[in-house]
Amino acid sequence: MITWLLRTSEHAQNPILFLIGIILVYVTGVALLAAVVWKFYEYRQISQKLDKQRSHFFSTREMLLLVLLLFPCWIGSWGQVALPLIPYYFFFVLGSIGLLFATGWHLWAKLNIGHLWSDGIEIKQNHPLRTTGAYALARHPMYASLLLWCWCGSLIMSNALTLVLVSALFLPLMVHRAKAEEQWLLQKNPDYALYRNNVRMMSVTLSGGWSVAVRLVLALALCCFTATNQITLTVLGGLVFIHLYLGYSLKPEKTAFSYRSKSGMMTVFGLLGLYIHPAFFYFFYVIVAMCLYGLKWNCPCMWVYEKYHGCPCFMLIKQCRLSLAKK
After folding, report:
1. Local confidence band at 187 (pLDDT 50, 70, 90 cut-offs)
2. Cβ neighbourhood burial of 141 (10 Å; 0-12, 13-18, 19+)
3. pLDDT band for position 4 (50/70/90)?
4. Do the beta carbons of residue 241 and residue 196 sit within 8 Å?
5. What is the torsional sign of CA 87, 229, 302, 321?
6. pLDDT 10s digits, 107-154
7. CB count in 10 Å sphere of residue 304
8. What's the CA gap between 50 and 162, in Å, rounded?
9. Residue 70 in contact with residue 151, Cβ under 8 Å?
10. Do strands 50-54 and 121-124 pair parallel, antiparallel, or not at all (unpaired)?
11. b/e map of 96-113 (b: 16 or more CB within 10 Å)?
């Protein structure tokens, strides 16, 4: 096994980091699998009275199968992309920290949920509302942490294919299941609506000092990427992904909206800079300035949100579609 891994790592951009990444993925993956086995065993040992119960097509088995699909891509380097040195180290470190955090968060959530865990969608008698501990970070911490684990594994292995696969397939299926659960939870406990308005569904809820720290690090990283002229199509995709993740993590909502807006700006001007004229890369400095300014005051994106409570461009498109539908 060791000999085979050493031979495989020879084709990686950095063989040593490749081996470290594979070891991290395997060790944390085994920990997640052990937690699932433990919950199945615990579930079968406890007899519980249910108010509602139904199966869902995206169960633990399907989640496991999708996660297992990622391993051949990571080990075989299918979909792996070459990155400039600074972004490569940045994404590796960021992915490693996120992978360890996601593993701890997932195990913490399984401890927090206790006897309420189930493979299907179940509402038990006297079903309590979990809002503290791991559930203070996301409404569905087990799903959110598993997604984060998959994304961070992709960052560690510099694998664009698995990053897209998790975002385009795994995420929608997770959201579909989470929404099905929330329909029953809202009926069972009206307080769930307040909880839903204050905690994110599928990403870490960041506010206060943590929000400022994460945004500052991201702005500085973006500045370094731009200053060293190392923004490629792959690096651009990674930066846009991180901005989108923060756009669905940050609180208050106007701050989150500003990061979703900036991800769109980065996409447009990054592609223009790559394929039309390098001068468009200078716009990244404007985005950095907006990020730094937004740490204390309202940046232009936040002003737009305060005035329109959304993106005026998308609102205009929606109005046009409604007008055409009426005709």
Report:
1. confident
2. buried
3. low
4. no
5. negative
6. 999 999 988 898 888 888 877 888 999 999 999 999 999 999 999 999
7. 19
8. 38
9. no
10. antiparallel
11. bebbebbbebbbbbbebb
Residue by residue, DSSP assigns 17-65 as HHHHHHHHHHHHHHHHHHHHHHHHHHHHH----EEEEE--SS-HHHHHH
Read off the amino acid at residue 313: C
Looking at residue 176, what is its pLDDT? 94
Instruction: List pLDDT tens digits, range 250-262.
Output: 999 999 999 999 9
* 54-86 residues labelled b (16+ CB within 10 A) or e (exposed): eeeebebeebeebbeebbebbbebebbbebbee
The pairs formed by 309-315 with CB atoms below 8 angstroms and a separation of 24 or more are 310/257, 311/257, 311/261
Write the single-letter amino acid at 156: I
Burial label, 175 (beta-carbon count in 10 A; 0-12, 13-18, 19+): middle
What three-state secondary structure class fits 138? coil
CA–CA–CA angle 118, 123, 124 (5° rounding):
90
| pLDDT for the residue 321 | 77
User: How far apart (Å, rounded) are the C-alpha atoms in residues 136 and 131?
Assistant: 5
Closest CA to 146 of 260, 256, 36: 36
Supply the DSSP string of 184-241, one letter for each residue.
HHHHH-TTHHHHHHHS-SSS--B-HHHHHHHHHHHHHHHHHHHHTT---HHHHHHHHH
In angstroms, how far is the first alpha carbon of the chain from the final one?
Answer: 66
Per-residue pLDDT for 306 more than 80? yes
Report the C-alpha gap between 111 and 129 in whole angstroms. 15
Q: How many CB atoms lie within 10 A of CB 268?
A: 11
d(CA 253, CA 95): 25
Question: For the purposes of burial, counting CB atoms within 10 Å of the CB of 30, is it exposed (0-12), middle (13-18) or buried (19 or more)?
Answer: exposed
Decide: pTM greater than 0.85: yes
HEC-encoded secondary structure of 270-297: HHHHHHCCHHHHHHHHHHHHHHHHCCCC
Q: CA neighbours within 13 Å on the CB side: how many for 188? A: 18
